[in-house]
Amino acid sequence: MKKVEELKVKIFADGADKAGMLEMYKKPFVKGLTTNPTLMKKAGVIDYRAFCKDILTSINDKPLSFEVFSDDFAEMERQALEIASWGDNVYVKIPITNTKQEYCYALVEKLAKQKVKLNVTALMTLDQVRNVVAALDPNIPSYVSVFAGRVADTGYDPVPLMTSAVEILKAAPAAELIWASPRELLNIFQADEIGCHVITVTNDILKKLSLVGYDLNEYSLDTVKMFYADAVAAGFKL
């Protein structure tokens, strides 16, 4: 098994808790950070602009993605241009469709022509990947974020899909494929094996990195000790 420092896939921390973001930013193996409106809501963010600009005072030398939140493409464009103006390390997340399932390809092409660094998000099919890649400027840095974890939630193996997506991305040399919404630490190694460029990982999963390569006999014993200690602490009797 590879050591974490031997992985070629870049690990991005995914979250919206300021303390957690700053903690992960300081780790050398974290190469970038992402967030989204759902994570921000969960973290109690109220003022979107203020939160983003505050984070950027501390994180300005690693890629950081912020998402537009309008359902109207014209307003998405306005928000995207403002967000892009906040820093050279900022990538603007554009959802693959709006809530009416109208695709974002024309908007992506328009923003790419304005040299906006994009992170097109919530993709789950290869047709979506092909169409996004066709809309991107192949020479402008960007991310194509495929939600492999959610694909797996439906019972489909995401590895063949992500492997094909890696090949499609070759048409846009400056673009990188993101394995998004991983469900377990193993996904980092799967992404690395197929040549995926980036994987976004939550703090909960990142904290498991200390287990990589851990002896399974010892891990088995640790688990038994946990069950025993919890039974004693609960005062169970038969």
Describe this structure in words.
There is one protein chain. With 238 residues, the protein is α/β, with parallel strands linked by helices. It is built from eleven helices and eight strands. The mean pLDDT is 96. α5 runs parallel beside α6 (126-135) and α6 (126-135) packs parallel to α8. β1 (10-14), α1 and β2 (30-34) form a beta-alpha-beta unit. The protein has helices at residues 18-25, 37-42, 48-58, 73-84, 105-113, 126-135, 148-153, 158-168, 186-194, 203-206, 216-234, and strands at 10-14, 30-34, 64-67, 90-95, 118-123, 142-146, 175-179, 198-202. It has one domain (4-211): Aldolase class I (TIM Barrel, Alpha-Beta Barrel), CATH 3.20.20. The longest helix has 19 residues, at 216-234. An eight-stranded parallel beta barrel has the order 1-2-3-4-5-6-7-8, surrounded by six helices.
Compact summary:
The chain is of the alpha/beta class and 238 residues long.
**What strand line-up does the widest sheet have?**
1-2-3-4-5-6-7-8
Q: Largest sheet, described in full? A: 8 strands, parallel, barrel
Looking at CATH, the homologous superfamily is: Aldolase class I
User: For the residues shown, what is the average pLDDT?
Assistant: 96
Strand portion:
15-25%
CATH class: Alpha Beta
Q: What portion of residues is helical?
A: 40-55%
Q: What is the chain-wise order of helices and strands?
A: EHEHHEHEHEHEHHEHEHH
Termini Cα gap: 43 Å
By CATH, the architecture is named: Alpha-Beta Barrel
Report the total helices.
11
Rg over alpha carbons: 19 Å
Number of domains: 1
CATH topology: TIM Barrel
SS-derived structural category: alpha/beta
Low-confidence sequence ranges: none
The strand count comes to 8
Q: Which overall shape is indicated by the principal axes computed on the Cα atoms?
A: globular
Oligomer: single chain
